[in-house]
Vacuolar protein sorting-associated protein 41 homolog (Oryzias sinensis), 838 residues
Amino acid sequence: VFESEEDSEEEAKLKYERLSNGVTDILKNDAASCMTVHDKFLALGTHFGKVYLLDIQGNVTQKFVISSVKINQISLDESGDHVGICSEDGKVQVFGLYTREGFHENFDCPVKVVALHPQFSRSNYKQFVTGGNKLLLYERNWLNRWKTVVLHEGEGTITNIQWRANLIAWANNVGVKIYDISTKQRITNVLRDNVSLRPDMYPCSLCWKDNTTLIVGWGTSIKICAVKERNPTEMRDLPSRYVEIVSAFETEFFISGLAPLVDQLVVLFFVKENTEQMDDEVRARPRLDIIQPLPEGYEEISSDALTVRNFEDNECRDYRLAHAEGEPLFYIISPKDVVVAKERDQDDHIDWLLVKEKYEEALMAAEISFKNIKRHDVQKIGMAFLDHLLKNGEYEVAARKCQKVLGKNMELWENEVYRFKEIGQLKAISQYLPRGDLRLRPAIYEMILHEFLKTDYEGFATLIREWPGELYNNMAIVQAVNDHLKRDPSNSTLLTTLAELYTYDQRYDKALEIYLRLRHKDVYQLIHKHNLFSSIEDKIVLLMDFDKEKAVDMLLDNEDKISIDRVVEELADRPELLHVYLHKLFKRDHHKGQKYHERQIGLYAEYDRPNLLPFLRDSTHCPLEKALEICQERNFVEETVFLLSRMGNCRRALQMIMEELGDVDKAIEFAKEQDDGELWDDLISYSIDKPPFITGLLNNIGTHVDPILLINRIKEGMEIPNLRDSLVKILHDYNLQILLREGCKKILVADSLSLLQKMHRTQMRGVRVNEDSICESCHATILPSEMSKSFSVVVFHCRHMFHKECLPSQGTIPGLQFCNICSAKRRGPGSGILEMKK
């Protein structure tokens, strides 16, 4: 069992499984001592001196019996073709896995580590190193013999070697050193921090992150060392490279193994815990942590406690951490167990989300990575999500997610609808049902409509509006609505919905009848959309009662479908509606309804007197006698005055204004419009004994009649209100007229003089005569071809030219001659001769 020590809401970074199959059988009677990982296979060493080659699943592919005691180290080159093995009894073997040729040697002391050159398979890199009391370099020379060189000794047992490219790193009791094989120089010495720890019990862990970065873990200390090139100017006798420690920090537990993971570290910790009963420390389960190194510390990313077999009996040196270079696989080796840790993939992530009941996130993750997931199915995750929502009573959310989860699978849709029905939540799913190209069986939609019809008329109406009529059996729903209307015949929601259903069914007459009954605003749209004018001929009064303006506009816009005569016939019993219709018709066209103009006089008089006078003025078809009779009956003075003047009886009209209205201003305005001298006399005669009328005449008569005529007829001694002001106004108006005349005269004289001067200047200008000019009489060139001969040319001010001999005889006025062309066209005399002689 592998448990994460982090908060349960945080997802683990790695997943674990035991390496089983052949490994299980091996470790029953033996114990693992070391292990090396290659991309192609695994190499496992045991305490009984055997080496097993395993595939990735842990099955044994080869077995080598090397010794009878513990295998300390196995080393592979990059190609995986050669292996180096060392054991506790001093045996060292380096050979090809497919040739068995190589190096076989027995030493008189234990050899703790061996490391092959990474390119050992190549002929010029046949090198390896061993570590016991000394660090020995073996190199095969051209005679095929092995040459040995001591690279280091005298600092205790060498416990770890890691070879990367040209750099060999090793650890002994004092610290960690790096040797450059290309320059044959040792370039660093990283001292051990905690010297109190026994190096054999708490061995050093080394791993290369890349060709120049070494990670050192020892005790509770981790150091990241970067190998850098030294500046040539600083070299002197120093190595060409140096090491810089870029990060160093202490950890909580003892380090048993290290491995890089991109820019992070995977660290295997040996853990001791204090028991509650005793003060002694006991061995706890090892931990595998992922940490983010910082310059002076680290950040813990994840931490997992591993329940490996017999962990209570293991020491720090019993654990190893091996990793594969090609992919993020980490092997935790203990004497009785081998555990593989790998990064969690998308399937694992989805597993965790499902366990945590984060179904929506799981569904989203599955949709994004549907090509990469192997164990999960998007549809099944979606269905689990729906189950979870319904179980928690989140019916609206579940219904909304159905579109995403069920997609185009109609069978699943139908099953889900029945499930919603079982829990009484059909309403929740109704608005999300497919209604486009993909549709369910009509029975499904009808089932939902019946459910709404039982409990929610408004919701039922909404579905009828939103759902296309072809989704369900229209007749069945109409019957159901009619059944409900028998119990509630005046329900406007049901009636409106029934009208919509009739519209879907193309029974427009029934729909129209309902709309008119309800006075529904869509009635006009329905008539226009489906051309129902033939159906409304007997319903015009209903339409007008509902909305006069819209009804009249519709009738007038569609005269070709419903004639004016038909409308008038239908409205005969409703004169107030007939007036509205005929009035709008007259406003649109004064001539279309001319045969009803006589009828309209009475309608205007009865319902709309303000528009009667404009009608009488604009209409040329109404009988004046009939109009006069109606207006006199109703004592409409203004309209009667207009009709009398229209019929030529201006004197009677003026008399009505003076007697009936008593409005001198209106009388004067009327006299001005008629512009009749006799009418003015009548007006003066009628006003002469009425001082207020005389005042009005004095103020307004000045520009039409000589005021003296009025003043002379005023009786002496008559008191006239505001006489002085009126006389002043008459004088002022007279002076104004005089000033206007004088001003006009000045302007006229000035313009005449200006034009005369302009004409004089124009006529005094010279006229150009050249070889292109022609005689207007003979049409020959005006100038002779031989200029030496004498000639005479006559040029008029109108620019017409003649040879003198081509002109006719002079006119009646001696010495004055006119242009024949201009005289014939009557353009004026065109006189004033310019005579040119030579």
Observations:
- The chain has 28 helices and 34 strands.
